[in-house]
Design goal:
The complex is a heterotrimer of chains A (155), B (284) and C (791). Chain A has a 5-stranded mixed sheet, covered by helices on one side. Helix content of chain A is 33%, strand content 16%. Chain A is of the alpha+beta class and 155 residues long. In chain A, 66% of the residues are buried. Helices cover 35% and strands 25% of the residues of chain B. In chain B, the strands form 4 sheets. Chain B has a 5-stranded antiparallel sheet with strand order 4-5-10-6-7. A 4-stranded antiparallel sheet of chain B has the order 11-12-13-14, with helices on both faces. In chain B, helix 11 runs antiparallel to helix 12 and helix 12 runs antiparallel to helix 13. By secondary structure, chain C is an alpha+beta fold. Chain C is 29% helix and 23% strand. Chain C has a 7-stranded mixed sheet, sandwiched between helices. The longest helix of chain C has 28 residues. The chains are: A alpha+beta (155), B alpha+beta (284), C alpha+beta (791). Chains in contact: A-B, A-C, B-C. At the A-C interface, helix 2, helix 3, helix 4 and helix 5 of A face helix 1 and helix 18 of C.
Chain lengths: 155, 284, 791
């Protein structure tokens, strides 16, 4: 039996009925057509599906849409405001922090959580904070630089 | 990736959750979902019903009092890892919480969920043993306190009865709890413990006192190393005695082996990590 | 207009990716689309006695359930391999079919048996669990040496000993003679373990069939959509190629694993026609682990003959190469022509011979994985050379220098003819090694190493120098070697009337930044803004027939095709400009986006000429209107990037855990169009190469079940596994393409694995450790230390 949920995504309130087994990642992609949130694995490892739920980074593949009822979700599509890139988005472009781009939304969302908690992270802290995100393209170095760029810019 | 279908009930209160659980004995309790949902996505677990207690604020607290540290079952790993008070009052617990998974997992995963799941490679079990914690559970029949030494039975098996929900982990405030640490050798893929060693001891008198040593990751169930505890209890603190005791770490215990780490190697890690943890505590 | 080539221009593709507007295959939703789930064999080797689909067919939402019998009676045959490598004795390669769905037998765990199509992905998966397959389980075989023995389980009746082909290269007699005369022989036996590519985007395919027009569309995660279309139309489904469009939109990483033409691509297209609706299949990661082609898997014995003073006189290699259960698209090519041909390395070794046996096992098929054959060759050479240096008590850098091929530019000095069929284009090998040693401060580091040992700290310095054959490849050469296709590349350059430029390329990016690099090339050559250039790729409906992206070929081959077309545009534009300027063509020069009459200020802008080409009112007589040129570029030779990598590792002697302290890479990839992009490719390559050394490996149990079948077990490199990469380049232009480029996609992976390996052995040689198999798990290292201590 489907269940009703109300979720605020990128500031917009959505009232929907979902199958209980629907994961938040699938809800975002399929029901709301927000395909910037990617699904890269089925064991909560890769972090490609990371979004913010009530302000903290969460793997949206390991959360039922039903569990997100009543929460505020932010996805990569909601990061830029009025066409202005967020410093993290800018950092990824400036520092070549992405190649194929598939892991990028998840990493940006994780980094938003990091910078919220720790506005001036060391390189080691940035690397450690990414332990839940895989990137197969960049070797991570330019991702670290991109996050550092954003941290400096946001201070 | 897609779990088998199930019915979903969102509990509005603990009482309501217990009512649902009485009505649906086959139901599984869902809190953060970070142990249960991964298993369901691989269809290794196919419950017909979930009762979601994740939203229950009454189970989400962290109180460091004079006699006890009380951790509500719905507290997230992140809340434990980032608590300065906990880091001082029970450092091993904060360290274990901070070593679980990754930021995203720590944001959602809960203490209650982890210990109910009882993965032998999870990080809390050894720490709770070393800190002599009590697991508080509630059912329709009432409350029950489970001493930690009785709680973990085997691989994914606990003393928890059907119809019971974990409500709180209680840790006594003692000198040894305040002087505790958790050291972990993580699996490079899963980041679960290949060997996790938790040690708590009062060393204020220059001797080992109230020493408790426990491991997770090396065997099918977490266990205390009473060999080391007995060898050192009351002894003067010295590098030689630490080495001698830790050379016998996990003696007689049946350990796990897999393609990443054989039984022999896990035994060796137990020795190394016992030595490192004891050395760290010896500094007080 | 400033020159664009050589500039670190920010990537034009980034904006869509950082805002969540990339368009990957799984993002596509088509009207009335339904979803496929595959029933895969849980057994590695079994006969199928029967398949009962009744329950699945009756399940909620099910649109269709199909088995091998359904699809193969439809005159569909298996997916073919792209290479034919015949036996040493001239016998034809054994080429058993790779059925789309199992033909009565399964040969690896994960082999597809049936497909269920349903309204939702969840319903498809639920119903797939209801398909009941009656298996007669047969013994599995995973060990290569075991698989070729008499009496081993046979995958195919007509492939005796599970050997589809054997192969050799080089002069055996000369090499044996070198060994007979050798003053010193170094022998190394090792496994180059199987890896799983793990592009973060799982594969996805959507098939669509329009009955009214009889047109098929396949959206798929592919590195080479035209190759996929050709194989699927001509060899598998037997459908008309011109009625099939293959679209590969943004691709989330490939690394070789999205080269092969896969059975799932065939299935969605075939099913779409059966059910009359679009059908989507998206791999779950658990499926990717067993169903994506895997990489590497060599078991090798390598011997190096030397004089006492360290001059290499011969290299002899025996290799068993695992191909898995079926011949994948590039399967036969990787261990042979992309591996054996690279065994010269950077050295003047005068005699080389490789004897190779390809082996089927009941495991997932093996194909290209970043570097494909060349990392295996580099690992082999660099490990055995390093071991020889240790044995002869020579510095590993000195032994290498002593044997390097002397510098040659390929223009004034000829290319270097190797003992193993290739002619290197240009190189200065000593220079990259010296630079890398300077970067790491080699002499001081050696002193530090000695001092550290005195304190009981063990760190090692590992050198790896490599060469790779890229820019794949001259068609006639590869045709003679067994390729069933040419390996040219195509590019169409269409100048629009307003002077904007659309470029249609057969290359296809999966993160390499083609839209940026190609735009730089075009804009630079035409003297226009990059913003006025659009790169179109990944769609057979719009780009000319092209071979796709792999083997570090896109800029060297695809870029060269672009240059050819751009030059044709300029030539035609010159005719138009000459007419309009009333000057002779020879009196015009084209620069900065305009044609100028030499010595005058009379000029005509690019946009004026393009407009005239499409509004040909005042126009040269006899000249066709339009400004639109297509070219095919077939390279004259491979390109040969090379470099020197140095790794510094420290070993935790208590646990055997290794920490990578430093990584230095000095690479020469020829000329560079975008240094930022090139450095990014090197970084990513290093991470994968280091990953092989330290973390990654596919492990099958005796029943051929993949034990490392999820991210809980297969160790992917993470951010905190790496130090900062210290990189630099030398630039030795490729002499045989206009851009002078050699390719960079695989360099980092090819060089780095051996550097880390050599560093580990360098750290522990003094204790008696001689070799550790990859990946260097802490236990393996710890065990090696214990074994050495007790020896």
């Amino acid at each position: 039996m489907n269940i009703p949920i109300t979720v605020t995504v990128n500031g917009e309130v959505h009232q929907c009925e979902v199958e209980p087994r629907k994961l938040l990642a699938q809800f975002l992609r399929e029901d709301l057509s927000l395909t910037g949130t990617h699904i890269g694995c089925d064991t909560s490892g890769c972090g490609a599906c990371t979004v913010l739920v009530d302000g903290v980074a969460v793997k949206s593949c390991t959360l039922l849409a039903a569990q997100a009822d009543g929460t505020e979700v932010k996805t990569i599509e909601g990061v830029a405001s009025n066409g202005t890139l967020h410093p993290l988005q800018e950092g990824f472009r400036e520092k070549h922090g992405l190649q194929c781009g598939f892991c990028t939304p998840g990493i940006i969302m994780t980094a938003m959580d990091l910078l919220e908690q720790n506005p001036d992270p060391s390189d080691a802290e940035i690397r450690h904070s990414l332990e839940g995100n895989f990137c197969r393209c960049t070797g991570y170095e330019n991702i670290v630089k991109a996050i550092r760029y954003a941290a400096e810019k946001m201070r | 990736m897609i779990p088998a279908a199930f019915e979903y009930h969102k509990a509005k209160s603990l009482r309501g959750a217990l009512g649902l659980l009485t009505k649906h004995e086959d139901a599984k309790i869902l809190s953060g979902g970070h142990s249960l949902l991964p298993a369901m996505k691989l269809r290794m677990s196919t419950p017909e019903r979930l009762i979601d207690i994740g939203g229950l604020k009454e189970l989400r607290y962290l109180r460091a009092g004079r006699e006890f540290i009380r951790v509500g079952a719905n507290s997230t790993h992140r809340e434990l890892a980032s608590s300065k008070r906990l880091a001082k009052a029970a450092p091993a617990l904060a360290q274990a919480a901070g070593s679980i998974g990754d930021i995203q997992v720590r944001n959602r995963g809960t203490v209650g969920g982890s210990i109910a799941h009882a993965d032998p490679a999870a990080d809390y079990p050894a720490v709770l043993l070393a800190l002599n914690a009590t697991i508080n559970v509630r059912s329709a029949e009432g409350d029950r306190e489970i001493p930690i030494d009785d709680y973990f039975i085997d691989l994914f098996m606990t003393n928890l009865n059907s119809g019971e929900i974990i409500t709180e982990v209680t840790i006594p405030v003692t000198p040894s709890v305040g002087n505790s640490c958790y050291l972990k050798f993580p699996h490079p893929a899963s980041r679960f413990a290949v060997c996790g060693c938790a040690v708590a001891a009062d060393v204020s008198g220059g001797t080992w006192s109230s020493l408790r040593v426990a491991y997770n990751g090396i065997s099918g169930a977490t266990f205390r190393d009473q060999g080391i505890e007995q060898a050192l209890e009351g002894q003067a603190i010295s590098e030689d005695s630490i080495r001698a005791a830790s050379d016998n770490a996990a003696a007689g215990a049946e350990l796990m082996g897999d393609t990443f780490a054989s039984e022999e190697y896990r035994r060796h890690l137990a020795q190394v990590f016992a030595r490192r943890a004891l050395t760290q505590l010896a500094r007080g | 207009m400033a020159a664009l080539i050589g500039k670190s221009v920010k990537r034009v593709e980034d904006k869509r990716f950082i805002t969540g507007h990339g368009r990957y295959t799984d993002d596509i939703v088509l009207p009335r689309m339904c979803f496929a789930a595959l029933v895969r064999s849980p057994h590695a080797h079994a006969e199928i006695r029967g398949i009962d689909t009744a329950d699945a067919k009756a399940a909620d939402g099910v649109v269709g359930v199909f088995t091998g019998q359904d699809i193969h009676k439809d005159e569909v045959i298996g997916v073919p391999t792209g290479w034919q490598v015949d036996f040493k004795n001239g016998d034809t390669m054994k080429e058993p079919p790779y059925p789309v769905l199992a033909d009565g037998k399964v040969r690896y765990a994960g082999n597809a048996v049936a497909v269920v199509v349903a309204e939702t992905a969840g319903q498809a998966k639920d119903a797939a669990e209801l398909v009941s397959v009656d298996y007669n389980v047969l013994p599995a075989v995973t060990d290569l040496a075991e698989a070729i023995k008499d009496g081993a389980p046979q995958l195919f009746d007509d492939v005796p000993n599970n050997v589809p082909f054997d192969w050799e290269l080089g002069d055996k007699a000369k090499t044996d003679a070198a060994f007979s005369a050798a003053e010193h022989v170094t022998t190394l036996e090792f496994t180059n373990q199987r890896l799983i590519a793990n592009a973060i985007e799982p594969r996805c395919s959507i098939g669509e069939y329009a009955e009214a027009t009889e047109q098929y569309t396949l959206y798929t995660t592919s590195q080479n959509p035209h190759v996929t279309r050709l194989l699927m139309c001509a060899f598998v489904l037997g459908i008309p190629e011109h009625k099939v469009r293959v679209v590969s939109p943004d691709v989330g990483g490939g690394f070789g694993s999205k080269i092969p033409h896969y059975i799932e691509e065939v299935l969605v297209v075939w099913c779409a026609k059966q059910v009359g609706r679009p059908v989507k299949w998206t791999a779950e990661r658990s499926e990717s682990f067993v169903a994506d082609a895997q990489g590497r898997e060599h078991v090798t014995r390598a011997e190096l003959a030397l004089t006492k003073d360290g001059t290499i006189t011969g290299l002899r290699v025996n290799t068993l190469a695992g191909l898995g259960a079926y011949l994948s698209t590039f399967g036969p090519c990787v261990p042979t022509y992309l591996h054996g041909t690279l065994l010269q390395g950077l050295y003047t070794t005068p005699a080389i011979h490789i004897d190779l046996t390809a082996v089927f096992t009941t495991t997932t098929p093996v194909d290209a994985y970043r570097g494909a054959g060349r990392p295996e060759a580099t690992y082999l050479i660099e490990r055995v050379v390093d071991q020889a240096a240790h044995e002869l008590n020579l510095d590993p850098a000195e032994l290498r220098s002593k044997n390097f091929i002397p510098p040659f530019d390929g223009v004034n000095e000829p290319g270097y003819q190797t003992q193993v069929a290739l002619q290197y284009d240009s190189g200065n090998y000593e220079k990259v090694l010296r630079r890398a040693m300077e970067m790491v401060d080699y002499a001081s580091l050696r002193k530090e190493q000695e001092a550290a040992r005195a304190e009981g700290r063990y760190f090692g310095i590992g050198i790896s120098t490599y060469i790779e054959a890229c820019g794949i490849a001259p068609s006639a050469v590869v045709g003679a070697l067994g390729a069933r296709a040419g390996l040219y590349e195509s590019a169409g350059v269409r100048v629009e009337p307003t002077g904007k430029v659309s470029v249609f390329v057969g290359s296809h990016a999966q993160g390499q930044g083609h839209e940026t690099t190609f735009s730089q090339v075009v804009a630079d050559r035409l003297g226009i803004e990059m913003a006025d250039v659009e790169i179109v790729h990944g769609d057979t409906g719009s780009v000319p027939f092209g071979m796709g992206t792999y083997g570090s070929r896109s800029l060297a081959v695809g870029g060269s095709a672009i240059v050819k077309s751009v030059d044709k545009i300029i030539a035609k534009g010159t005719k138009i400009a000459a007419h309009l300027l009333e000057a002779g063509e020879q009196d015009l020069e084209f620069a900065d986006g305009k044609w100028t009459v030499k010595g005058t200020d009379k000029s005509l802008a690019f946009g004026d000429v393009s407009l005239a080409a499409y509004v040909p009112h005042n126009y040269p007589e006899g000249l066709e209107p339009g400004l639109d040129e297509t070219s095919f570029y077939d390279p004259a030779n491979f390109t040969f990037p090379y470099g020197a990598h140095i790794a510094v590792v420290e070993v935790d002697m208590d646990t055997g855990k290794i920490e990578l302290k430093r990584f230095i890479a000095c690479d020469d990839v020829g000329n560079v169009v975008n240094p930022m992009v090139v450095e990014g490719q090197i970084h990513g390559g290093i991470a994968q190469g280091v990953g092989q050394a330290l973390l990654e490996g596919a492990i099958y149990d005796e029943g051929a079940q993949l034990l490392t079948a999820s991210y809980m077990d297969y160790a992917m490199p993470r951010a905190d596994d790496f130090p900062i990469f210290e990189t630099d380049r030398t630039e030795t232009p490729c002499p045989h393409n206009d851009l002078g480029v050699k390719g960079v996609g695989e360099a980092g992976t090819i060089g780095s694995t051996a550097a880390v390996s050599n560093a580990l052995i360098d750290a522990l040689w003094c204790l008696g450790v001689r070799h550790v198999e990859m990946p260097f798990t802490p236990e393996r290292v710890w065990q090696a230390i214990q074994d050495a201590k007790s020896a």
